[in-house]
# Entry
Amino acid sequence: MKRFLLLLEATLKTQNMKPIDNTETLPDEFITDVRNIIENGRKKAYVSYVLTPIYGNSYNKLNLEYYRKFYILFPKVEIVNTRVHNLEWSHIRRVLSVSNPEARLWYLENASSNMWSVRELDRNISTQYFERRLAAQLTTNIEDLPKISDKAPLDYIKNPMVAEFMGFHRDSSYSESDLEQALINNLEKFILELGRGFAFVERQQHITTDTGDFFIDLVFYNFRMKRFVIFELKTHKLTHQAIVQLDMYVRMYDDMIKEKNDLPTIGVLLCTDTDNTIARYSVLHDSDQIFAAKYMTYMPTEDELRQEIEQQKQFFMEQHITNESD
# Structure
């Protein structure tokens, strides 16, 4: 019962309500009904009748079901102290809709640490942010995911990338400059899609060598990874030529621009579709610095996005799983 009171107190604090200090102020029948609601899910208990006059309509039967669900899904009290203190009840209620336990905890942690608004959290859950991370595509069993370092690119790069904010329709035609401009025009939303720690550096960054001039589409720096991340934008399917070009840019950036304390540069090629053959037989294969990802200029349905994630997971496996003959 003490654990429930701690959780209820955290809930009350998120709504600026007076918390319950101890069980002595509660009738025995109230405690019994609360225990029944939590442990047995008995919906017709009159606990809402007891609480509503004191704390208001936040304690109707529907909300009590949410409280019960929170109690069951997050049984460890330390969650209250470390991950809930700066969130609103609307954050928590949205996270409760996530069925995957690993994803649910991940969303709760990141909403707290990254100070996501409820709207940002809702978009990230709706676009299956957790599953789109390459870190979540290392295995077909989500429970077998290895622990990923906070500086590892796999925890930041997503495939597919959802960019419905650019304003293109599903069947729109556009040039690479149109695509680049749309991302710049919606830079704040693009950075939100990229994730934690990204800061914009430059557009069409000019690099000069003894043999020519080169222009990199978009350059960011990630303060958490401590490295530059360059993006090349393509309006066509992944090609070998595009990968070779990106590989050259990454090597040039490491040689000419990266500081001594920066970790190796990451290159991401954004294209309309990926190719498993190129993933297996190009410099993409087993590379820790070069990645390719499909972008979607529209908001797919939940089923479409789930299918796309599975397809891109196969692409990622082709890129990073060593052949038995290797």
